[in-house]
Each structure stands twice: as structure tokens, then as C-alpha cells.
Write a structure and sequence with these properties.
The chain is mostly helical. The protein has 18 helices and no strands. The radius of gyration is 23 Å and the shape is globular. It starts with a helix and ends in a 12-residue tail after the last helix.
């Protein structure tokens, strides 16, 4: 009798797997025919209904290519009153020629000395004859690939849903150029911290590679690498309070130390930090910070119960960054988005872990469904108002929301074969 039941269970599981596989295949094919926003909604629902399937990587590839085409089809314009970094990066990119001059060109025009990102930019310029569209497209696509790699490494309840919750976050998906290096560096740095738990040398090497893409984020996350062995420890409520108070004290000490250093040392990096490190509270980023604080609070009950090392590590990493953001709100509130970027990657897997410990499941399902709806609504709204001029080189009678996956491929070919202009001014700040 037991043998018969086991056979029936196996047959049912095989049948369900086959149905999920067929559903995934149909979803992939429908990408060519459906408006992308509508298809994306279907993908969200599919990811919500299933956990892991063999088609996850192909579905991620489809959405990654689509968003990369959408983002790189924009006419950026004269952003931030002339202070956006895009002209600086593209001015450097236009001038990459010999490898020996790569670093000096990066410093002179793009205002950074991060060797790995500079080498990547030079390599793309060398292979494509300084084609700007290819550079932008690859930068976004590679970043999506690194984020997907991080989602699989964390191995949460649903890597596909985790990926979607990250890349469609309303403040994340447009990839402004003043954050492009940070967006690429963050998943590398987080993976380095993750691997360091098992192999310190391996993890440290990956972390250093991330630092060569964006040094400031390397410094931001360095304490997590140094104390990586303690990230899987579960702290008690009283210990968390002591850590919070100690963190505030250390942060304030660091602020004053940098100010004292700046008064006696004339260094570019120190002066760059000092220009932002002033006691001028700015609460424009407070709504986003409150969201991450709420996620932390939702995760706290599960954190105090779980033995899942991935959950413990995510909670401790996110708590560090949330605390740092709370302090930074009063000193670099206008630049708080730079600290937020790792939180965009950490909140989704931790939230999916946390919801497993909350009952009833109907409430957690409704909450997650509403969060997905918010991300889709925000994404659709940004494309709907089209201030970014998506597909500006295409047919003006077809709204970006109406374009199907097939249209995306056609537009990719069009952009690939024509000269693309992204901005109409140079950085002047």
C-alpha cells in the first residue's frame, strides 16, 4: 500500500513538473507576441506561483535583454542641471585608444581610477570601435547577469521572484549613469562576502575585484568582509541594542576623524568625501529608508527563530546597511542612494525567507502580491509618462508600453546599426 502511494506521489510530482515546464515554455514564446509590460506581469505571476524551474535562467535572460534594450534606448538629455555622470563616462569612452592610457583617460574624463571598470570600458571600446550603444547595453546586461548570479548563490525560496523584486524596484531599474559602476560592483562585492564564509581567500579575491569596479562601495562593505565569520551568528535582542548604540558611536567617531584628516591632508578622495559629509539632514530618501527598515522588522521574528545560515547572514548584512543609512541620513542625506544600492539586492531574498516564518500564509501572500503590484505599477508609470524618451529613435506613434518582445529585437538591430546620441550637454559640476 505504501509503495503504491509513493508511486502515485512521484507520478503527481512528475505531472506537475511537466505542467510547469510547459507553462514556462509558453511564457517564453509569448514574449515575442505580447506587449512587454503585460508579459512582465505574467512573469511576475509565474514566479509567484512556482519556486524553481529549469527555465528560470532562460526567463531571466529574456527579461534582462528586454530591460537592457529599453534602458539603453533612452535619450538621456541634460540631466541633473549638468551634474550627471553620463557625459563624463562617454567622453572617456570616446577617447579610449591605447591600453597604456586607459587609467589616465578614466581619471581625466570619467573622474575615477577604478582599474577593472576602466579596463572593461577600454576593452569594449577597442572591440566595437567606441560604439556607445553597445557599451551602455553591455554594462546593463552584465549587471543583470551578476545580480542573477547573486540570487542563485543566496538560494532563497524563489530566485526568479527575488531577481524580479530587485531589478524592478522603482528606484533601481533605470540605471542612471551616476550609479552605473556601483550597480555593477555591488553584486560582485556581496558575492565576495558570501564566499568568504567558506573560503576567506576566495571570497576576498572576488571582493577585491568588486573594489576595482567601484572603490567607494568597496570601503562601504569592507566591514562585512572583515567580520564575515560573524554574519551567521544570531544576536539576541539585547545584543542588537548594544550593537546599535556602539554602531552610532563608531559612525560619529568616523565622521569627526575624516573631518580632522581633511583639515591636515589635501587628498582628492578625502576632499570628495568632505564635500558631502556635512551636517545637513536631508529626508528626501526617507521613504525608501523606511521601506528597508520595515523589511528588517518583518524579518526579525524569523531571524530570532531560524537556523538557516543564509537568512542569518542576510539579516546581519542588511541591518548593518540600514543602521549606516539611518546615521547617513543626517550627514549625506542627498547622497543616501549610494548606500541604498546594496539594500536593493539584499531586501528581496531576505523578505522571501522572512515570509516563510509568518502565519497565516494568506496574509504573507497578499503582502507579497501587493509588493509585486507596486513594482509593476511604478515600472509601468515610468514607461507610460516616458520622460526618459524610451525608443526615441523608433516610430513615435507606437508607445513604449505597446512594444512586444519582437519589437524590442527590431529596435535593438536599429540602434545597433545607427549612431546613438544620449545627451545634449557636458558635465559642468
Amino acid at each position: 500500500m505504501n509503495t503504491s502511494n509513493n508511486i502515485n506521489t512521484v507520478n503527481n510530482n512528475d505531472s506537475n513538473d511537466a505542467k510547469l515546464y510547459i507553462s514556462g515554455c509558453l511564457l517564453l514564446l509569448s514574449w515575442l507576441l505580447l506587449p512587454f509590460a503585460f508579459w512582465l506581469l505574467g512573469l511576475f505571476l509565474y514566479a509567484f506561483a512556482v519556486k524553481k524551474t529549469r527555465l528560470d535562467s532562460l526567463l531571466v535572460a529574456a527579461v534582462s535583454v528586454s530591460l537592457s534594450i529599453l534602458i539603453t534606448s533612452r535619450y538621456i538629455g541634460y540631466l541633473w542641471n549638468g551634474s550627471d555622470d553620463m557625459p563624463s563616462y562617454l567622453m572617456a569612452y570616446d577617447r579610449y585608444d591605447e591600453l597604456s592610457s586607459m587609467l589616465s583617460v578614466s581619471l581625466l574624463y570619467a573622474k575615477h581610477g577604478d582599474a577593472l571598470f576602466g579596463f572593461y570600458s577600454w576593452a569594449v571600446a577597442w572591440f566595437t570601435d567606441n560604439d556607445i550603444f553597445t557599451y551602455y547595453f553591455l554594462s546593463v546586461l552584465i549587471t543583470y547577469g551578476l545580480i542573477w548570479k547573486f540570487c542563485k548563490l543566496v538560494d532563497g525560496p524563489s530566485p526568479l521572484l527575488c531577481f524580479l523584486l530587485i531589478i524592478l524596484f522603482y528606484k533601481f531599474f533605470q540605471f542612471q549613469w551616476h550609479l552605473i559602476r556601483t550597480c555593477m560592483a555591488v553584486p560582485i562585492l556581496l558575492m565576495g562576502i558570501w564566499y568568504a564564509q567558506k573560503n576567506k581567500k576566495h571570497g576576498s579575491l572576488i571582493f577585491i575585484l568588486g573594489g576595482l569596479v567601484h572603490f567607494s562601495t568597496f570601503i562601504l562593505l569592507l566591514p562585512l568582509l572583515i567580520f564575515s565569520k560573524h554574519l551567521t551568528r544570531r544576536w539576541s535582542a539585547s545584543q542588537l541594542i548594544v550593537i546599535f548604540l556602539g554602531f552610532i558611536l563608531v559612525a560619529l567617531t568616523g565622521v569627526f576623524a575624516i573631518k580632522i584628516l581633511g583639515s591636515v591632508v589635501n587628498n582628492y578622495m578625502v576632499n570628495k568625501i568632505l564635500t558631502r559629509l556635512v551636517f545637513e539632514p536631508n529626508f528626501s530618501k526617507l521613504p525608501s529608508l523606511l521601506f528597508f527598515i520595515v523589511v528588517n522588522l518583518i524579518a526579525l521574528p524569523g531571524y530570532l527563530k531560524t537556523n538557516n545560515v543564509a537568512y542569518l547572514r542576510l539579516f546581519n548584512m542588511m541591518s548593518y546597511l540600514t543602521l549606516l543609512s539611518s546615521v547617513a541620513l543626517f550627514f549625506i542625506g542627498e547622497e543616501l542612494h549610494r548606500i541604498f544600492l546594496p539594500l536593493y539586492l539584499l531586501y528581496a531574498p531576505m523578505l522571501l525567507f522572512a515570509l516563510q516564518y509568518i502565519k497565516p500564509k494568506s496574509i504573507t501572500g497578499v503582502f507579497l502580491f501587493l509588493l509585486m503590484g507596486f513594482h509593476m505599477a511604478a515600472f509601468s508609470y515610468v514607461v507610460l509618462i516616458n520622460e526618459s524618451k524610451f525608443f526615441y529613435k523608433g516610430d513615435k506613434h507606437i508607445h513604449p508600453l505597446e512594444r512586444r518582445g519582437f519589437d524590442y529585437l527590431v529596435m535593438f538591430k536599429h540602434y545597433w546599426n545607427t549612431e546613438v546620441i544620449y545627451y545634449d550637454g557636458y558635465r559642468n559640476k
